Every structure is written in C-alpha cells, then in structure tokens.
C-alpha cells in the first residue's frame, strides 16, 4: 500500500527540482533588470486571436444548444458535458488573455501571488 506522506514528499521533491511553482534562484538571477517605468510588453496578437476563437466557440455552443433544445427538444449527456466544460474554458481563456502582456521579470513583487 502507498503511504500518503511518502507520496507527498516525492511529489514535492519533483515539483521543487523542476521549478514548479517555486522558481529557482539561479533562474531569477538570469532575468533582466526589471523596468517598472516602461516595461516591455508583448504584442496583442495572441490575446486577440484567443478572443476571436473564444467568440467562435461560444457561437457554435449557442447554436448547438439552440438546435438541440428547440428542434429536437432533447439534450443528451454530451450536451451536459459540453455545458460543464464551457465554464473552465471561459475562465482559462480570460485568465490567459489578462496574463498575456508584461513579462514576469518586469512585474512588481506585490503583484505576484505568494504561495
């Protein structure tokens, strides 16, 4: 039988070794000097493309739900699963759109969540 404490310890070793949510100090030291006055920003290409794809996905979802509920008057298990999966899809898309911008080396430490 697997001991939960040993499993947790091994997981922590793997996450910490590979960086995981804790960035190693040598990686932080290799980052450029922070520029808080006029930080280098990424282009808006990826957020715009993601926004367009999200809108297309929502339109296809609404069209499917309309067709299933008005024409056939029957929603199946697949429709329920699609509806449930739309919640994290929208949340992750919004998080990605808002997170695409300033490089982490230019962020102020008060803007970064502490673990």
Structural features:
single chain, 115 residues, mainly alpha, 4 helices, 61% helix, flat, membrane, transmembrane, transmembrane helix
Please characterize this protein's 3D structure:
By secondary structure, the protein is an all-alpha fold. It has a domain at 43-102. Helix content is 61%, strand content 0%. Helix 3 packs antiparallel against helix 4 (77-99). It is flat, with a radius of gyration of 21 Å. It starts with a helix and ends in a 16-residue tail after the last helix. The chain crosses the membrane at residues 44-63, 84-108. Keywords: Membrane, Transmembrane, Transmembrane helix.
- Helix count? 4
Gross morphology is flat
Could you tell me the number of beta strands? 0
Class based on secondary structure composition and strand pairing: mainly alpha
Strand/helix succession = HHHH
Helix content: 55-70%
Beta fraction? under 5%
- Could you give a short account of the major beta sheet? none
Which regions contain 5 or more consecutive residues with pLDDT less than 50? none
Radius of gyration of CA atoms, rounded to a whole number: 21 Å
The whole-number mean of residue pLDDT values reads 79
Cα distance spanning the termini? 31 Å
What's the SSE blueprint?
Blueprint: H1 4-17, H2 25-30, H3 45-71, H4 77-99
Helix pairs in contact: 3-4
